[in-house]
Amino acid sequence: MTDAEFRAWLDEEVRESRMKPEERDDLIGQKHMFDLDFPPGDTPLRRDYRGRIVGYVANERRVEGEIHALLDGAKRDHPGRMVYFEPIGFDLF
Fold it and tell me: What's the domain range around 82?
């Protein structure tokens, strides 16, 4: 999904009242941090975190080997904040 497609999807979520505007903005901010740290291509950070799930919540990077651990920790430490995450070097599904 391109950045434009991601933003369009989030805007639709807001229009359809499935997400609040501030949640959309929080998620876009977390994705921006991910994009700065993990640009496309074979980068040192991508090599370091290959096979892991990297997420951002409350401007903090979280790294786990399993999605539930990442989400549980993010919710515990930052309730109510949106979490942007991507698997590095593999597909979740």
Answer: 3-87
Residue 93 located in a structural domain: no
Q: What is the pLDDT of residues 19-64, one digit of tens each?
A: 999 999 999 999 999 999 999 999 999 999 999 999 999 999 999 9
Domain count, the chain: 1
Which residue type sits at 74?
Answer: A
92 domain residue, yes or no? no
pTM of the model: 0.91
Q: Measured in whole angstroms, how far is the alpha carbon of residue 88 from the centre of its chain?
A: 12
DSSP assignment of 32-70: HHHHHHS-SSS-HHHHHTTTSEEEEETTEEEEESSHHHH
